[in-house]
Amino acid sequence: MIKSIFSLFTLLGITFCIAQEDYLIVNNDSISTTAFQSIYHKNIEAEGLPLAIANYIDFKVISQAARAEQIDTSSYFQRNLEQFKAIESKQYLESKELKEEIAQEIYEKLKIEKKAEIFSKFYQNPFDPEEVSNAKREIGKLRNQICVNVDTLALAKFREENKSRPFWVRPISIPHEIEDEIYDTKIGACSNIQTDEFATYFVKVYEEKEAEGLPPYNQLQEEIKGSLNQSPYYNLLQEDLIKKLNKKINIEEDKSALNVVINKAKKDLFKTEGFDFSGNQIIWETEHSQFTQQDFATALNHIKKRGKYGKNTNFKSFINYVLPYLKDEFLIDTYKNNLAEYEPAYKTSIELMRESLLVNYYIEQYIYAKGEKDSTAQRQYLQANQSKYTWPVRYDIDIYRFYDPSIEKQLEKLIRQGKPENLILNSFNQNSEKPVVVMSHGIFHKNSNDLPASFNPKKKIQKGKYQTQNAFYIVNDVLPPRVMTVEEAGHSFKEAFNSYFYQKELNVLKDQAEVITPKAFK
Questions:
Q1: For the range 70-77, what are the long-range contacts, defined as Cβ-Cβ under 8 Å and sequence gap of 24 or more?
Q2: Cα 187 from Cα 115, distance rounded (Å)
């Protein structure tokens, strides 16, 4: 079937045209040399170009065979998709350069340990002008008391009321803006008063010292970078992503539709339990997504419910903060949910993952499963490789283990008399709560770990150690070398045979395939 499809393309003259454009062709699949080197550059770097091409051809002929069988692996694809997306999408959602820059900055901070204290007043409602003004005034007064007049009573009162104490700063554990203030402030000094959307604050630095035993950067860089997404530095990564997306994605905005919701919210949002809005016009729109009036109203209600915003909330300040935040979230969600549309390389990765699942399923269910049923092929492979699967000389041995040294002579006497197993065991164990003598039987080769180092196969009965226990070994028979059965050959044989059978089946597919390699790859 594959050959006939390819022949049809040949008759239509398509093959000639494609080949002229430097394409690698495997039956009815083709890829340009440029695309191949771009998509499989990691394979080329790791394996070299010839092997990367050979592996690609193998991959394609199996994929085509699987498609010919009309195998449906969509359920496997869906189960693996989210995990794959989470891993593969990282390179598009994070800047490697910025992560490296931040990691180096953090490492420099780790070289110096600083003992500091944060003096802050958090807002319940950051959009209440009176509350923010009171916080600034309170922190301004506190800074004068602590940093200018050195009022120990004021310091003690603040610490008691806020459960505050000086602490040794660990980079990444506190907001990076506060962290920067601490590292920019000299010993014994206080920083200037700072205000953000959460609080008004200043810091005081008490001590600093060089860090001891700090590993070199190359040993810590991955750990530092790995922690950034769960740290306050995450905001910097998000800001960088938003800048990138604003250049990549165009958002159309309907200001009139936006203002209708804003005017309604200004009137009702902080005066009622729930902010009702009936309209649903589009406010923001991209090629792949929309943000409607209902989305906006729902978001405003959610933010209000989550915060403590009362009647004194400055609505203009609130909207000026919330609106850019919601727009940025819409932008990021649009990009994440449509990453394959914005990033062709990501789309290619998803398709390769889908195809890889199909190929792996075919190998497992159509090649390996076929080989497991082919007992003739297994026996032939075993015979052809019997040197790897031949038992050495082995010994049929009974082992009598005992714990009490005082019974050794009596036990040995019974063994040398050739007494049967049940008589020997009953002689010692019948009146004992715990077994005094334990017997086991096995087939062992001379270098087995279960035999003592002093084992002499020519001696019928000998004493030795079975692990840590005293034991008598009785050699019943000597088994000459022989080829193992398939069952005896076990897991190592199965793996080797699967590899052999896979290659055999692959060669059949490749022999049936039409492959054209461009001159650039020869």
A1: 71/358, 71/361, 71/362, 73/354, 73/357, 73/358, 73/361, 76/357, 76/361, 77/353, 77/354, 77/357
A2: 9
Q: What distance, in Å, lies between the first and last C-alpha atoms of the chain?
A: 28
Rounded to 5°, the CA angle 145-150-152 comes to 90
Predicted confidence (pLDDT) per residue in 333-391, tens digit: 999 999 999 999 999 999 999 999 999 999 999 999 999 999 999 999 999 999 999 99
Q: How many CB atoms lie within 10 A of CB 485?
A: 13
pLDDT surpasses 90 at 490: yes
* Dihedral (CA of 320, 323, 327, 330) sign: positive
pLDDT of residue 59: 97
Collapsing DSSP to helix, strand or coil, 182 comes out as helix
pLDDT grade for 23, boundaries at 50, 70 and 90: very high
Q: Which residues contact 196 (CB under 8 A, 6 or more apart)?
A: 177
Tell me the mean pLDDT in the region 175-200. Answer: 94
Give the integer Cα–Cα distance in Å for 460 and 458.
6
pLDDT of 21: 58
Closest alpha carbon to 296 in 341, 331, 271, 262? 262
Q: What is the mean pLDDT of residues 194-221?
A: 94
Query: What's the predicted TM-score (pTM) here?
Result: 0.71
User: Could you say which DSSP state residue 144 is in?
Assistant: I
At residue 12 the predicted structure's pLDDT band, cuts being 50, 70 and 90, is: very low
Residue 350 CA to residue 92 CA, distance in Å, equals 14
CB atoms within 10 A of CB 359: 21
| Rg, C-alpha atoms of the chain | 38
DSSP 78-124: HHHHHHHHHHHTHHHHS-HHHHHHHHHHHHHHHTEEEEEEEEEEE-S
Nearest Cα to Cα of residue 418 among 348, 366, 474, 358: 474
Residues sharing a CB contact under 8 Å with residue 389, sequence separation 6 or more, in sequence order = 382, 483, 484, 488, 489, 493
> In this structure, is the dihedral angle defined by the CA atoms of residues 308, 312, 317 and 322, taken in order, positive or negative?
positive
pLDDT at 408 over 90: yes
Query: Looking at residue 364, what DSSP letter applies?
Result: I
Residue 501 near residue 374 (C-beta atoms within 8 A): yes
Show the DSSP H helices in 228-314 as ranges: 234-248, 255-268, 293-306
pLDDT single digits (tens) 251-269: 999 999 999 999 999 998 8
